[in-house]
Amino acid sequence: MKSLRIAELLQSPATDAEVVVKGWVRTKRGNKNVAFIALNDGSCVANMQVVVDLAKFDEELLRKVTTGACLRVDGRLVASCGAGQGVEVQAEKIEIYGTADPETYPLQKKGHSLEFLRDIAYLRPRTNTFGAIFRIRHAMAYAIHKYFNDKGFYYLHTPLITASDCEGAGAMFQVTTLDLNNLPKTEEGAVDYSQDFFGRPCSLTVSGQLEGELGALSLGQIYTFGPTFRAENSNTPRHLSEFWMIEPEMAFYELEDNMELAEDFLKYLIRYALENCREDLEFMNKMWDNGLIERLNFVLNHEFKRLDYTEGVEILKASGRKFEFPCDWGCDLQSEHERYLVEEHFKRPVILINYPKQIKAFYMKQNEDGKTVRAMDVLFPKIGEIIGGSEREADYEKLSARVHELGMNEKELWWYLDTRRWGSAPHSGFGLGFERLLLFVTGMGNIRDVIPFPRTPKNAEF
């Protein structure tokens, strides 16, 4: 007989039908006559209650049914007498796929800290919290692809191994096959990368944007969605060394078009989560963040405020608030500044635009004032910046001059600059850190808890 997922069975009518259910034991309790096993297979937060008539089963078999054990149960789906569930399974046959020693199994029936669960990341998806988080993560990934597909975007796979530094920050992981204990050297004493696998220095990508722009200037509108890497020694609740990025790039989009797409995209994702992950969101709202669902609806129900960076700084300086970090014109705003604008001043999401060019990347389109660029950051409650983007510089001379001004290597960017020589066009794009989105949608406070196996400084377990 075909087994059904517990999520399906819990929605089934109690027809006294024969069913097969499989999963992992969360708890077992009972009395002299009956045992109640809570079984979970990862398909939903709720468990299936399995009722066991002790007289029908071997005592030695039932002794092995402990928290963490994996079972197959054949039985009958009937109406439940207990509160909180509509149906339960009356067991007729139990097969143990795998036992779990109760003396050593780490996930016993008690509260576990998030820090402890990170140390056993290979088991934490079996908890209610991480089961909910990773189901939401799946739903958001699916919704991202659906959104762009339905809007006529093409999914472009950009390289993970690259010779260019998109952000110009230099915080990149080097990729090499050279023997680090016996590096080949040039006559000048430098490492001879001509003998390396690619014949030149290469690194893991920090962004697919530059290659994404090439796609947009050919296919019209594309998006990337893949892993990116930053070798920054940042041990904060908001940074990972390996994370996933969504980066749409659109030909013929100016800054206003870019802002409209970003707002529509974020609202679509949040609406999708509320409509398709309701049970998991309610669990997260109850257990971790009792303002979560209210905050999700807050974003849906408000138009995003468009705000010039200069005006934003003036608002912050006039607020009378003592911020930890300064907020003079020319500084990169911190999370505390961004959250003040969203949560206290405007009381709605904010898109901050026209930043000083000296704090933004080389590829952003310069405004006529010579001081600012057509950048945009989308600011959300609780987390601050969730999206960063811009209209891209389409003029070859201006882009080339900016590369020289920043001391970047034009020879490494020749292919990127060439797109401005042959059929250049206005174009824009933005980047959304997938894990930043998940922090907002799940209500979690640490980015290590919204990715299955976090990579951070000094940590590459599992």
From TrEMBL:
Catalytic activities: tRNA(Asn) + L-asparagine + ATP = L-asparaginyl-tRNA(Asn) + AMP + diphosphate + H(+)
One protein family per Pfam: tRNA_anti-codon
Location of the protein in the cell: Cytoplasm
Protein's UniProt keywords contain Phosphoprotein: no
Keyword Lyase: no
Swiss-Prot/TrEMBL GO biological process terms: asparaginyl-tRNA aminoacylation
Protein family membership: Belongs to the class-II aminoacyl-tRNA synthetase family.
Subunit structure, interactors included: Homodimer.
Entries under PANTHER family matching the protein: ASPARAGINE--TRNA LIGASE, MITOCHONDRIAL-RELATED, ASPARTYL/LYSYL-TRNA SYNTHETASE
Protein name per Swiss-Prot or TrEMBL: Asparagine--tRNA ligase
Gene from which the chain derives: asnS
